[in-house]
Design a protein that fits this description.
By secondary structure, the chain is mainly beta. The protein has one domain. Helix content is about 15%, strand content about 40%. It is built from two helices and eight strands. The chain has an eight-stranded antiparallel beta barrel. The protein is globular. The two termini are about 25 Å apart. The mean pLDDT is about 80.
């Protein structure tokens, strides 16, 4: 099961999600999408994909544990663009563009 969530200013991906979405990437590009609060993510090798979005930033993909879970620090995205979601993310991919689109999952009662 692909598990991707925001926690403590970090994007956390389980090993299965990291392999499926990032492959062997050690750096990623991130950009906020203002109209729906989504986060766009692409391996840094796809630099041309986010050039249209001047708000993008680059971040390292860090190994969290021996199982292969990964974490990406989002401090810059939070500070500069007011991204403030916490919790699970809905994952969408646009394979034609090589993008991962992460949507904050609405919490019940919110």
């Amino acid at each position: 099961m692909l598990d991707c969530r925001l926690a403590g200013h970090h994007l956390r991906l389980n090993a299965e999600a990291a392999a499926a979405l990032l492959g062997d990437a050690t750096r990623v590009l991130l950009a906020p999408r203002a109209e729906d609060g989504a986060i766009l993510l692409a391996p840094a090798t796809e630099r041309h994909l986010l050039r249209f979005n001047p708000a993008h930033c680059e971040a390292l993909v860090k190994l969290r544990n021996a199982h292969g879970d990964r974490a990406i620090a989002l401090h810059e995205l939070f500070a500069d663009h007011g991204v403030s979601a916490e919790g699970p993310m809905t994952i969408e991919t646009d394979e034609s563009l090589g993008l991962v689109i992460l949507h904050p999952t609405a919490r019940e009662g919110a």
